[in-house]
Design goal:
The chain has 92 residues and is mostly helical. It folds into 2 domains: 9-47, no CATH class; 48-81. The protein contains 4 helices and no strands. It is elongated and about 75 Å long.
Amino acid sequence: MKTQATPRWRETSRPAAGAFSPATPIGWLLLSLQVHTERARSAPERGASAIEFVIITAILVALAAAVGVVIYRLVTDEAESIDIPDAPGGGL
């Protein structure tokens, strides 16, 4: 009689990864994060360091904020240029 192998997500001792089923979006995200973290820890020469990730993230956040400000100003300027006539009847 064959015994089934225990799924990898059940072998972990971390409660956060085992608290959610990998079939749920949060469980899948936690499982993916755990696999990525274990892979990065097992081979420190692979990929970027934590400081590089922080720098890259900060640059991307600043870029997203700048794009958001530009879009906000364009929309606001266009909205202010729209001429809205007075409502009939005194605007009640």
